[in-house]
Structure to design on (616 residues):
């Protein structure tokens, strides 16, 4: 699993940073990409990657500001001609997204050749994706804005086929039976399956935030605890916490302080304002720990599995 | 005056060609750019040019298909932060554009810091811009699609200041009086103004088409006659006229044939399908006259004045 930041900028695009779009690449595990927010020209960014639009089957919209949604109609329309025919797609987003897409497709006389399912999200909703349970918390951004916390389901451990072969049990359908059952019989002997199965592979926890002030609500922070990856905005640097608060955004050090007891593994900052140049960002980076990143466009980071 | 093609592609963007947007650069003459159609990522294309969004004061939308309008909300929103504050902008486009923009700005909670004036256009309408008279003809594209024909107003000729100086008339307010009046007096002598003013500078005629089949209606063709510049789509090459007709598009040779008696000066083809590669296009180009062009993105061409 891998994070790919397609757009790391805030508000309006610059030559370097596009407005927000973030990919969770689950192709190796689940043969799909999950897209979070679709700033204008997200489809153009995708053209510069190996991402197949047809493999984007779920889109989460954190909030309805233009820099997070204006690329959605174009992406959806083009996907129909990029191998997406008959491959359904679901959009999760705040109330209003469905009516706007209807209005947009109606005025532009667009028709899609795949099923589009739109789920309007509310705070504290639970969403069941195939391989993830998703929780939703409301943030503080003046308009409804959400963090989506994806919890990958745990997987049973690897089968110790070397040990089975030592007992003379050859590979075959019995290996699947061993993984499924509590015990199994071979040549009159009863064995415990757990003795041949490795440690459970714990699912990953990934949190992608919409724009927001720093939120200190306990239920939200509890749900973030131990996250493998948190993606959060940092529209302001340089200790401009008051300004960030006034504009319903976050200042980077304030976020770090808010998350200091969460035992997260990786933290990635996005939604970087065009006011800051490379020198500003490099300066901020010197004070960050190794597991904290400021993303640029096309930033990629593997999200390792935890074996427990 | 100059044509700048920001997006020369059809339907969906490729790495080489963006969806449609065309600039008429009138900065030298009238201190403004006029924008025709706003495909997604037009604002991104503009970032790679010297065009100031604040100097785009009029936008013409030829029709409401997504590849011609999905960049409009983002362009309008960003212009507010790119020097556009308090500089009004007018959009001319088919019925439906206003309701869609209202829906889009309402869902995204966008507010502009400049006046936005929307004029919904109908066939055969006449539009008076400051320096142009614009006529509108309906095309044939399945949905309402227009060609906008801009007719620049004629200008009075240049003052022959050398001849005036020979008479001992020094530069000053009298030079303006000479240009405005029919005759003037200097040191008791009456002169005819026309003897000191060069030939009238004829305004240019520029026609920018929306997507369309080849249209043979006489009133439309008559209005195109003698155009300094015609921009027309060529979604199909290779004599696929029947296919072009079926999809409400045009085949390039069919267009050339339709325009053969128009005495136009320059013809530029846009809306080039991604099906065609550089080799296909080079092959077509070998058969084109010197005044006929197939545009690429960032294609620029001066539109010379005619002195009569």
């Amino acid at each position: 699993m891998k994070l790919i930041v397609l757009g790391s900028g805030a508000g309006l695009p610059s030559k370097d940073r596009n407005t927000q779009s973030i990919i969770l690449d689950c192709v190796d595990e689940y043969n799909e990409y999950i897209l979070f927010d679709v700033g204008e020209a997200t489809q153009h960014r995708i053209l510069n990657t190996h991402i197949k639009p047809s493999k984007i089957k779920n889109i989460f919209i954190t909030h309805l500001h233009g820099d997070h949604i204006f690329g959605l109609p174009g992406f959806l329309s083009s996907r129909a001609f990029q191998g997406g025919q008959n491959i359904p797609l679901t959009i999760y987003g705040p109330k209003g997204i469905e009516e706007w897409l209807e209005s947009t497709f109606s005025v532009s006389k667009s028709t899609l050749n795949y099923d589009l399912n739109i789920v309007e999200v509310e705070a504290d909703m639970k969403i069941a994706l195939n391989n993830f349970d998703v929780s939703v918390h409301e943030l503080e951004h003046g308009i409804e804005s959400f963090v989506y916390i994806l919890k990958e389901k745990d997987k049973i451990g690897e089968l110790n086929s070397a040990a089975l072969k030592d007992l003379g049990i050859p590979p075959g359908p019995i290996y699947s039976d061993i993984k499924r059952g509590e015990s199994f019989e071979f040549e009159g002997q009863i064995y415990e399956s757990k003795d041949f199965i490795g440690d459970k592979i714990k699912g990953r926890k990934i949190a992608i935030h919409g724009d927001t002030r720093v939120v200190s609500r306990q239920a939200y922070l509890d749900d973030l605890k131990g996250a493998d990856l948190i993606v959060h905005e940092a529209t302001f640097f340089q200790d401009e916490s008051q300004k960030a608060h006034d504009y319903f955004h976050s200042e980077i050090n304030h976020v770090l302080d808010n998350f200091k007891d969460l035992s997260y593994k990786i933290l990635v900052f996005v939604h970087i304002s065009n006011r800051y140049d490379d020198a500003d960002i490099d300066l901020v980076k010197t004070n960050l720990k190794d597991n904290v990143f400021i993303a640029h466009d096309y930033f990629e980071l593997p999200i390792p599995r935890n074996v427990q």
